[in-house]
Amino acid sequence: MRAFLRNILWPTDFSPEAGEALRYADLFARSFGSTVTALHVTPDFMPAMYQNSLPVQRELLRRQAELKKEAGEKMRAMEKKRGVEFRRILVTEGSPAKKVIEVAEKEKTDLIVMGKHGQSVLEKLIIGSVANHVLRHSPVPVLVTKKGKRTEAIKKILVPTDFTKGEETEREIAWKIARGFGASLTLLYVLELFGHQGRRGKIREDAPAETLRSRSERRNHQGDKRRPGNPGVRPEKAF
Fold first, then answer.
1. What is the pLDDT of residue 6?
2. Which CATH number belongs to the domain containing residue 183 in this structure?
3. What is the DSSP letter of 52?
4. 107 with 118: CB under 8 angstroms?
5. Does residue 118 surpass a pLDDT of 70?
6. SS3 letters for 129-161?
7. Are 129 and 46 in contact (CB under 8 A)?
8. Between the chain's N and C termini, which has fewer beta carbons within 10 Å?
9. Are residues 166 and 124 both part of a single domain?
10. Residue 201 has what pLDDT?
């Protein structure tokens, strides 16, 4: 069976948010014995080349090669400064959002760890356009981080759930992550009472908690006995 989180992809634009994401990528790598691949995407000058003279095209090619070289040097410097060992350092050109997805598939990535915001003013107001595209189109789990208090360990994980069919995969991933970190796992179900007044019967307040507890107990006792180090699962309900 393929190990959980063998390869982690860390895309960077060298922003403070990307630097914080590297801390999490390294934290996951150390906890799960994973490798980390660093990726930077430079602007694609190809469209501009078709609209300019040969001397301008040569200058654009020179500038692109220069940007790639500088990016590679920056990532190697960060590798040394942070004490992180990159499996590969990749520098390519194109659309950052699309390239992250392409590289994730090509490198058989198990997890993408990236910063929440980009460097533009607009991206400081909403979740970054690159991160948003990756979240929507990534074939693998994505961890979007934000700059803030440094995290040396992950001790508590919250999993909101409404028990839809597709969520079983998310809960399984959360379970594996919690187990890897030795963290506690809290499942949260929010019961919306609006619109229920006219329905037959009465909604039992403890029904969501019972369902969560039943699922967690089944997961805890999967196999002949409970494995050492399994995270404790605490069901919660909210109204």
1. 94
2. 3.40.50.620
3. S
4. no
5. no
6. HHHHHHHHHCCCCEEEECCCCCCCCCCEEEEEC
7. no
8. N
9. no
10. 47
- Phi and psi (nearest 5°) for 59? -65, -40
Beta-sheet strands, E only, within the chain: 7-11, 35-42, 86-93, 111-115, 142-145, 156-160, 184-190, 233-238
- Count of other CB atoms within 10 angstroms of residue 25: 29
Return the pLDDT at 1. 39
Q: Is the dihedral of CA 40, 146, 167, 35 positive or negative?
A: positive
Residues 27, 231: Cα–Cα separation, whole Å:
18
Take residue 60 and report the two structure tokens written for it. 């654009």
pLDDT per residue over 162-196, tens digit each?
Answer: 877 778 888 889 999 999 999 999 988 887 776 55
- Residues 26, 129 within the same domain: yes
* pLDDT at residue 140, rounded to an integer: 94
Q: What is the rounded average pLDDT for all residues in the chain?
A: 80
Contact 32, 180 (CB under 8 A): yes
Q: Is the pTM of this model over 0.70?
A: yes
Task: Verify that 140 and 218 share a domain, yes or no.
Answer: no
Specify if 1 maps to a domain.
no
Task: Give the pLDDT mean for 54-72.
Answer: 84
